[in-house]
Amino acid sequence: MLLRLYIAGFTPGARRAIENMEAIVADLSGAPDQPKIDLEVIDVLENPQLAEDERILATPLLIRRLPVPIRRLVGDLSDRERVLIGLDLRDG
Question: I want to staple 14 with a disulfide (CB 3.0 to 4.6 A). Which of 7, 40, 65, 74 is the partner?
Answer without folding.
Answer: 7
